[in-house]
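Could someone model magnesium ion with this protein?
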Amino acid sequence: MYYKKMTSNSINNPGQEPESESNSASGHTEGGNEFSGSTKGLSGQVIGGRYKIEETIKDSRHTSVYKARHLLLDKPVAIKVMFLKLKDNENMFLRFKREAKLAAELSHVNICTMQDYWISEEGFPFIVTEFISGKRVTDLVKAAGGKLDEELAAAIVLQLCAALIHAHRTGIIHRDISPQNIMIDGGTVKLIDFGMAKSLYDTDSNLSMENTVYGTPTFMSPEQCMRKELDHRSDIYSLGCVFYMMLTGLPPFREQGLIDLVRAHISREPPVETEVKDPRLIPILKKMLAKNPDDRYFSASKLQSELEAQGFKAQISRT
Ligand SMILES: Nc1ncnc2c1ncn2[C@@H]1O[C@H](COP(=O)(O)OP(=O)(O)OP(=O)(O)O)[C@@H](O)[C@H]1O
Ligand SMILES: [Mg+2]
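Reply:
Sure, complex below.
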């Protein structure tokens, strides 16, 4: 079984990012120019004949994200590069391509815009997207001292509802809604990282999905934990976990071990009533975090209407 985010560190601390990864502008985690294997450290190089890599944003397990510049347009872009050593791994290659294809089907102000997908001369594929000069929700919560005020948290959720309405209507489920995959650029929320996404119309039978569980355990729905077939309501549960974390400073379940965390998602009630202060949000959070998808909001649009009916607005005045 393969959990996307699982490393020995995250098995012990499933809510945290693996220690080996960095997220700073100069966050190289291994030194040197490593065309030989990891495709890390490409700063200064031009790839695809037109993108000059400027700095590392993040090195992950299979990919690096860089800030780069389109040389002719003189415009910043973000580039996700699959490690060169994986280029002969057909399954990884197809999954990376699928990430690009699914993101390319979407066009919405609250979804990071896909711009290009290409294969470098060295043979590694890369995805080019708009560059978002903002913070991730994880960083926003930390910078705010542990939690966000209700109006801001609800505004972020409302903008994510708009993103999900579009994605779900296009037949795409994100499957990895987490505070690391949501960025705020000025007053605009951007959903990123379609690496775990699935299209309901996907007919790519070449892509091996067996024994695979997708997502970030802290934010995974009960059905995702049980490796059941997912639909759009799984994203609503994960969004509920993110909402809960923005309001309280902690995710609904903080179990340290993966097995305990999975069990909690499946059978423990989240302490919404004791931890969430705004009475308008308690029933909303409970419905988003319902164990049975049938008991959740049927759609992101229903959730949006409910938040608006309670007086919340999508507009962000400050972050
Ligand atoms: N378009 C972008 N503009 C600016 N920063 C970005 C952009 N896309 C991604 N990032 C940064 O890079 C990080 C990793 O990106 P992403 O989640 O797409 O990659 P990943 O390989 O799937 O990583 P992970 O396994 O950590 O999810 C994000 O958390 C964010 O900080
Ligand atoms: Mg990510």
